[in-house]
Amino acid sequence: MNAMTEPTHFDRLSNQHLDALEEETIFILREVAAAFERPTLLFSGGKDSLVMLKCAEKAFGVGRIPYPLLMIDTGHNFHEVTDFRDFRAKELGAELIVRSVEDSMARGTVRLAHPGESRNVHQSVTLLEAIDEFRFDALIGGARRDEEKARAKERIFSHRDSFGQWQPKAQRPELWTLFNTRLQPGEHFRVFPISNWTELDVWQYIEREKIALPSLYYTHKRDVVERKGLLVPVTDLTPAKDGETVESRDVRFRTVGDITCTCPVESTAATAADIVIETLAADVSERGATRMDDKTSEASMEKRKKDGYF
Question: In angstroms, rounded to a whole number, what is the distance separating the alpha carbons of residues 27 and 186?
Answer without folding.
Answer: 26
